[in-house]
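Hi there, hope your week has been kind to you so far. Please have a think about how the structure follows from the sequence. I've dropped the whole record in just underneath, so have a look:

_____
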Amino acid sequence: MARVERSARELVEDVLAALKRAGTVKHRDGHARYGIVAPKAFGVKMGEIQKLAKSYGKNHELAGKLWASGWYEARMMAAYVEEAERVTPAQMDRWCAGFADWSVCDTVCFAVFDRTPHAFAKIEQWHTRPEELVKRAAFALLASVALHDKRDIDDELVRCLPFCATAASDQRNFVKKGVSWALRTVGVRNAALHAKVIALATRLAASVDSPPRWIGKDVLRDLERPLVAKKLAKISARQTSSRPAPRTAAAPRSRRAAR
């Protein structure tokens, strides 16, 4: 175990040195334009972070060290090198508590948290949290699961729709946009979920309060596009063709054939 820890320390030093070399003042100063809060940042483009992460592969110990460093790019890279199967609920809570801006929040949910078996439990726990980015994480995670999980999880997704309805009254920007993102992503999985999301969005759009009304209209504007209808039709056709044909009863044998 000690050898692994030393190796992780050595690796994180190499990573931080590589990030420092790749960073630019111009890119770092541009963070503010996108609402990124990163006091400790090198100014490395996302493509470079992903390329560096790929060169190191999956490494749980390295991910932990990168996260602990506190550097913006190191935390982004931690999401890409983390081993989802080794992530615990406690680690998810720790990392979530450390979210300082939407970009790290979304990247962690999109690249690793949604692949853990704890995703739906955390969505349920986080959607009522008072911290803006923890609450956003619930919906970033819901959107990520809806996009990436190819299993039949319709029932689980439907159970999350009331969470969206409850959080829709939150006027904070990152929560509001997170709820919209989650609903729009759930709504394009298949026709049945689309209908349920449209019904919820219609109710929200009719609200007298601004946050739910904005969310409802944003979701309807996206999900009622012809392109979405075309995609859902293809999904329905694919689902129909993949179902086994119903078994038909055998025709009764005639008296003559039975003799």
Observations:
- Confidence is low (pLDDT under 50) at residues 1-5, 248-259.
- The domain at 102-240 is CATH 1.25.10.10 (Leucine-rich Repeat Variant).
- The chain has two domains: 1-82, 102-240.
- The chain is about 70% helix and 0% strand.
